[in-house]
Amino acid sequence: MRSQLAKSCLAVLVAVCLSLALVGRSDARDYPTRPITLVCCYAAGGDGDLSARLWAEFAEKLLGQPVLVVNKTGGGGVTGTTFAAMARPDGYTLFLAQAGPNIITPIVSNTRYNFDSFKYIARTTIGNCALVVRADAPWNNLEELIRDLKASPNKYSFASPGATTWLSFAMRHLHTTAGVQVKQVEFQGSSQALTSVLGGHADYTFVFPQNYVSQVESGQLKILAIGEHDPRFPKVRTFEEQGFKGSYYGWAGIAAPAKVPDEVVAKLEKVTSELVKDPAFVEKAGNIAATPSYLGSKDWMKALKQQESELSVLLKETKM
Predict the structure, then answer these.
(1) How many domains does the chain divide into?
(2) Could you tell me the superkingdom of the organism this chain comes from (predicted)?
(3) β-bridge mates for residue 165, sequence order
(4) Residue 15 pLDDT more than 80?
């Protein structure tokens, strides 16, 4: 009797589990059927927030559901990133992924999440970062700067936008690759670092386009190297063209908790691949100094894994 009852209970349990699985798959295929939350771990008005709202504005038109940007700040981005990583993996909580919170912070800090806590769905934009100096500086390209840095160790100074920022890590990678030693002066953000260079207190910095374009165009700064070609500055060569390979540009994209269904990933990939081609999206991205640069999940994951590996090695080399 007990054996028969146990078998009956087991059969019911299996049937319930199968039903729930089928419902889950059906929900994923019908996705989305309700509003989506896009978490940004930085404050409203910043680079990350603007990138999140840009994607949300165009994605909700294609998805047929509202996309609500929620700013969960604190802990240098850890609070919001942790919240998103621990969310239910159903596609209704997404995350605006960036190098700082998703790659660098888990390497240098003890966080409840790591790189693999997320499924990286689609890259949306890049920020074409540049190494800049004052207009009256003696260098006209990266090769000339590196030559002097090698000749006079610790004579020149790099204005860092922050010790654990991606911008600072990119320059550490450059310094290590080039075999140079420089004085690194820490600042709270790109604006302060750039002000130091403009004031002659530091020799160079590495910043996003919203920080340097107007000053270059007005003749206050000049660019020695840039992440990707920019038609506004056709004579400026990239880092790679001057002998230094690496990811010398920032990026933003859409991620979700790691176990999000494949159907949801495919839907969001398709939507993102379409919206980045919209002329209105391209124009609005330009207004926030971002360049549309789509990568699907597979290619983006491959690129991010390489960047994570490079940064991990760099940390060991710099003993940070």
Answers:
(1) 2
(2) Bacteria
(3) none
(4) no
Hey, which bits of 75-180 come out as E strands? 93-98, 118-127, 130-134, 157-160
DSSP H/E element including 209 = helix 209-217
Residue type at 268 in one-letter notation: L
In sequence order, what are the residues at sequence separation of 6 or more whose Cβ sits closer than 8 angstroms to the Cβ of residue 11? Answer: none
| Cβ-count burial 273-287 (b if 16+ within 10 Å, e if not) | eebbeeeebeebbee
- CA separation for the pair 245, 239 (Å, rounded): 7
CATH number at residue 194: 3.40.190.10
What pLDDT digit, counting tens, does each position of 48-62 carry?
899 999 999 999 999
Q: Each residue of 77-133: pLDDT tens digit?
A: 899 999 999 999 999 999 999 988 999 889 888 999 999 999 999 999 998 899 999
Residues 40, 80: contact at Cβ < 8 Å?
yes
Q: What is the CATH number of the domain that holds 45?
A: 3.40.190.150
Residues 67 and 120 in one domain: yes
Each residue of 245-270: pLDDT tens digit? 877 888 999 999 999 999 999 999 99
Residue 130's alpha-carbon distances to 44, 46, 163, 230, in angstroms, are 25, 19, 18, 10
194/51 Cα distance (integer angstroms): 22
Q: Is the pLDDT of residue 166 over 90?
A: no
Long-range contacts of the stretch 19-24 (C-beta < 8 A, 24+): 24/261
If one counts every other C-beta atom within 10 angstroms of the C-beta of residue 188, the result is: 9
